[in-house]
Amino acid sequence: MKAVLLRQHGAIDSLEYVTDFPDPVATEGHVVIRVKATSFNYHDIFTVRGMPGIKVPMPMIIGLDMAGEIVEVGSGVSGWQVGDRVLVNPLNRKLGLMGEMMHGGLAERCLVAAHQLIRMPERVSFEQAASLPVAYGTAHRMLITHKTIAAGEKVLVLGASGGVGTGCVILAKLLGAEVIACAGSADKVQRLQELGADHVINYREVDFSKWAIEKFGKPQRRTYDGGVDAVINFTGGDTWLPSLKCVKRGGKILVCGATAGFDPKEDLRYVWSFELKIIGSNSFYDADLKALMDLIQQNRIKPVIDVVLPLEKAAQGLKMIENRSVFGKVVICP
Fold first, then answer.
1. Which of 59, 93, 219, 275 is deepest in the core (most CB within 10 A)?
2. Sign of torsion over alpha carbons 220, 152, 141, 243
3. Average pLDDT over residues 33-42
């Protein structure tokens, strides 16, 4: 089968497109799916580069998020049959993540444990489903499952143009929040406005923290005046301290990642002086993914897909994410 292989850690150019990788065979408790769509996440870049403490077995077919159609059912599998349309939860309970500890979605076929399968509603496309797990699943858990955002609240989203970011904008608006979306180019800012953001900021030209203070007032320690109700920050790095400064007393900072650095400068005085709540959210569960597909089925949300590429152009798509030149998700259709 055709596949994209990681044989050694390094640059994205180290990925190898092959046409003769052995087809997977269904084993006990597993099915083989024909991959119809897979989507990239920044985690895939970390996998290619290599992460401290994580030993990836090589060669590895990368790609966490995928959706497809069952073509073979192994022994001991019940409730599933050939032809079923499925979204795959990329977390295998015993082995870890698809595309990291076992072969992932950048191939024509993939071996998947039955417990990872989620049935797709009729009106959800493979491209939409494959866009969901890591990005939208994380956003759903962070905003909706954890019940962190309420109608009328002012929510500032950093990195709003990527997969998680567009998911946060869409879901925050669905919850009735007033959304401030931050991105790094005029084009992305315009597209965020078209997506429904109430306010948009080009963070390369405007200090988002100062903007929020000028717009909504300086947060007060003795009252609840000024500032935003929540900052969604999965970038970390030099955005962390400015985030603390623009949140109102009793407000929230929601964290699900640190793409710009996990060890930022800190100032604990803001945390206690303004009684801030820092709320972490890790990963997602089947319930989050089912809820998201239901929302798509009901035409209440639509995942943002920037581009759909064939398998042989997978490295090009991953470079787009690395260069932060995408708006929403990059989807690969083998």
1. 219
2. negative
3. 96
